[in-house]
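re: ur question from earlier - yeah i can do the single chain one, its not a big deal. heres the input i used so u can compare w yours
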Amino acid sequence: MPFTIHCAEMFGDVFICQFPFTSGTASKIRPALVLFDLEQDAIICRVTGILRTGALDVTLKGWQTAGLLKPSVARLGHIVTAEKSVFVRS
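and the output i got, formated as tokens:
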């Protein structure tokens, strides 16, 4: 049987959460973009207002509609799996 991920529920939504630093020793409250909805968890990437042009940085259109305070990018190089219970709507 093929493996299927149902990701339409939250895909593309922006939430505020405790996003861990790469070291895993600390975290920061920041916006995150949902890439995949995994029932109790979600795969998310970091969102920042520091506009960079790296290969894995994607400019977010509709940033105001998403509740962000300024133009932002999704940093696809910073992806984690997080429990949805820690999300707060932006």
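The chain has one domain: 14-89. not sure if urs matches, ping me
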